[in-house]
Amino acid sequence: MLYDQARFALGAVSLDGCPADSIAEVAFAGRSNAGKSSAINAICRQSRLARTSKTPGRTQMLNFFTAPGAAGRYLVDLPGYGYAKAPIALKERWLRETQRYLQGRQALQGLILLSDIRHPLKEFDRRMIDWAQGCDLPLHLLLTKADKLKRNPAHNVMSAVRKELSGRGTLAVQLFSATAGIGVEQVREQLDAWLDC
């Protein structure tokens, strides 16, 4: 896929607003400020494709980005979960529409779950893993911000997470840093496999 030519397609506030021409999609999910938008930018070699912010809760819609070179393929930036400062009604809408998307989107081929390596596998992350496995949806876990830890501590965290999640089927775990470029090519290879169907 020509990820460096990816473009913003549309933002949907509900499942009904998602692209009708989609053949395959990969969604990026994670807690607010886990680095979903930064990951998409790093994968696509673009600094401003997905809007990033140091303020949690920036992504408030299902944001679709085209994967040029393969018509009907999309990367999807989902609203972050677990953001405590958003109004309750807004959080409930984000959660409801995200769940509807994950449960009802036929084109969804896989889920990239992002978890901050300094605070891995919080409650919502585990719930997302359980849900994906219950639906037989392939999941690829990125331990983000890996550059914030030294090499050995980062690998120790990854080993501990892999051990905890062993025996859970199609679930890969890797180190990732959008800033340092750690693991970017590995994610691209996974996206190629999912989006090429």
Characterize the structure shown:
The protein has 197 residues and is of the alpha/beta class. It has one domain (3-195): Rossmann fold (3-Layer(aba) Sandwich). It contains five helices and seven strands. The protein has a seven-stranded mixed beta sheet, with helices on both faces. Helix 4 links the parallel strand 6 (139-144) and strand 7. The longest helix has 17 residues, at 88-104. It is globular. The model is unreliable at 54-58 (pLDDT under 50).
CATH first level: which class? Alpha Beta
CATH architecture: 3-Layer(aba) Sandwich
- Count of discrete structural domains: 1
CATH homologous superfamily placement: P-loop containing nucleotide triphosphate hydrolases
- Average pLDDT, rounded to a whole number, is 87
Q: Give a count of the beta strands, DSSP E runs of length 2 or more.
A: 7
Largest sheet: 7 strands, mixed
Secondary structural class = alpha/beta
User: Radius of gyration, rounded?
Assistant: 16 Å
Separation of the first and last Cα atoms: 12 Å
Molecular shape: globular
* Strand order across the largest sheet: 1-3-4-2-5-6-7
- Helix count equals 5
Helical proportion, percent range = 25-40%
Low-confidence stretches: 54-58
Tell me the CATH topology.
Rossmann fold
Element-by-element helix/strand order: EEHEEHEHEHEH
Strand content: 15-25%
